[in-house]
Amino acid sequence: MSGRLEWIMEKLNGGLVRAFLIVVGLFWLVPTVGLLISSLRSPEDMSADGWWKVFSEPSQLTFDSYQKLLENGDITSSLVNTALITVPATVLVVVIGALAGYAFAWMEFPGRDWWFLGVVGLLVVPVQVALIPIAELFGKIGLFGNILGVILFHVGFGLPFAVFLLRNFFAEIPRELLEAARLDGAGELRLFARVVMPLGGPAIASLGIFQFLWVWNDMLVALVFTNADSQPITVALQTQVRQFGNNIDVLAPGAFISMVIPLAVFFAFQRQFVSGVMAGAVK
User: Fold this and answer.
1) Per-residue pLDDT, 155
2) Cα separation of 20 and 17, whole Å?
């Protein structure tokens, strides 16, 4: 009897946990849903009442705001700039971080541990401290105000965390597996590409998601290092607020597009993200 009671309580507890998580997830999605509905309403309707009014008057939904967004050259060009900044900054951090992480984990070279301590020490350097010195440096070498300068800044500040994360993950790979590959004639580059990279897929995916979200949503670095021709979507939306104030018919769809793309990336790679996060906790 007691065993059956414990089984019933276990099922109830599991159902309550799932129900609680579903409720939390729905609350988490409320701002996204509200922004989506707002972007599909006219400025007059948005100023008259809240976005939930659309459930009683679905005729308010329209794509006019998205049409105006596509006609706004500042917003469309800023979306392109955001992609041109985010994709290279993410790819470079993942590739360089993976190579350096493998080197620190499995290759012997003079001062390896001290170099790794130096990389770990860079994790505590705040971005704000480096903005002015690097801006002056980029101004002297002609990188200030263009996309390449923003990419290099994000790569420089993303690499310490990338090296730290991937080095710790790669160090958990069994030594016997690497030695067997070396006995079969695999060099370091082939060993890295054929053995380490496939095994490190979850950690690499987690790093890519972190870096992509950080660069895509960044505003501080872009606000300092870009100009009107190279600004990403975050700065472009802020500029729209400053110049036009109530330009909600452009701001709402622009903000939704800016938010939904990183959300789509996260949900597309959520399995790899969870595997990469849990890999560091379970040996």
Assistant:
1) 94
2) 5
* Residue from 155, 150, 156, 149 nearest 219 by CA: 150
CA–CA separation, 82 vs 232, rounded Å?
5
Gap between the Cα atoms of 271 and 45, Å rounded: 40
> Is 100 in contact with 167 (CB distance < 8 Å)?
yes
What does the DSSP 8-state code read for residue 60? G
Residue 220 to residues 79, 128, 159, 200, Cα–Cα distance (Å): 17, 9, 18, 31
171 three-state secondary structure: coil
In this prediction, the residues of the chain whose per-residue pLDDT falls under 70 are 1-15, 241-247, 270-283
Neighbours of 225 (CB within 10 A): 27
User: Contact, 180 vs 265, CB < 8 A?
Assistant: no
Torsional sign, CA 9, 10, 11, 16: positive
Which phi and psi angles does 226 have, rounded to 5°? -110, 165
Dihedral angle of Cα 23, 27, 33, 34, to the nearest 10 degrees: 140
- The answer to whether 173 touches 199, Cβ cutoff 8 Å, is yes
Whole-prediction pTM value?
A: 0.80
DSSP-derived 3-state class of residue 256: helix
CB 151 within 8 A of CB 138: no
Q: In this structure, are residues 253 and 39 in contact, taking their beta carbons and an 8 Å threshold?
A: yes
